[in-house]
């Protein structure tokens, strides 16, 4: 069931999104060799809370219970950010691991404000990275922007997926299929599911008030994924690099509104 949001609700969601986007801007200033994932996680939590927000991921349990505040901290995700190094695609858990020159680092963050969620991610380059890593990161970011351009009345869900696929396929990269974009609202994950790879059937028509997180995960090698024994960290099956960018976007009568801009 897709829950469309009113103009007033979208205005509130913009504040949640702004907190998440601003927090990524703050983290960007700390990206350098030697900084640890735990340090970034702590800065993220402090930044979100100082703006009146709550870290959405802490305690999140993607299992049967979904996102139920009753279960926060129970079998749930332990941290404020997900941090994914190099061949890690998404859902890496912060640890003592330090960033090093040449790494590409995906950071995903959720902020809850007035009971609305903003969900956003970027991939950062640490110092000087290889040309192939830089290209992967740039293409992934660009694919998100091309997808957002399609998020207008008159489009169907597959127009979003196919815009990403048309662009990314030129470079021969693998588009992750096992994890998708999604609706966002009071819960981080709502209907509909939005694939980023090519679709033959058009899916649902976009409607005014739909709020979607679009988050292409693009691999240098094949699209295939594997989950590490920690049961969270998703990596490329072939060990190739992966990049991830995400925004939460509202569909309106006119231009799409990117709710997670700082
Ligand atoms: N924010 C991720 C997504 O983009 C999901 C994070 S799962 C969590 O959909 F457990 F870390 F919260
Ligand atoms: Co996210
Ligand atoms: Co998301």
TrEMBL record:
It holds the Pfam family Peptidase_M24. A divalent metal cation 2 binds at residues 119, 182, 215, 246. Coiled coil: none annotated. Its EC number is 3.4.11.18. It comes from the Bacteria. GO terms for biological process: proteolysis. One of its GO terms (molecular function) is metalloaminopeptidase activity. InterPro entries: Creatinase/aminopeptidase-like, Pept_M24, Pept_M24_MAP, Pept_M24A_MAP1. Gene3D superfamilies: Creatinase/methionine aminopeptidase superfamily (3.90.230.10). NCBIfam families: met_pdase_I (TIGR00500). Removes the N-terminal methionine from nascent proteins. The N-terminal methionine is often cleaved when the second residue in the primary sequence is small and uncharged (Met-Ala-, Cys, Gly, Pro, Ser, Thr, or Val). Requires deformylation of the N(alpha)-formylated initiator methionine before it can be hydrolyzed. PANTHER family: METHIONINE AMINOPEPTIDASE. Monomer. This is Methionine aminopeptidase. It comes from Candidatus Chlorohelix allophototropha.
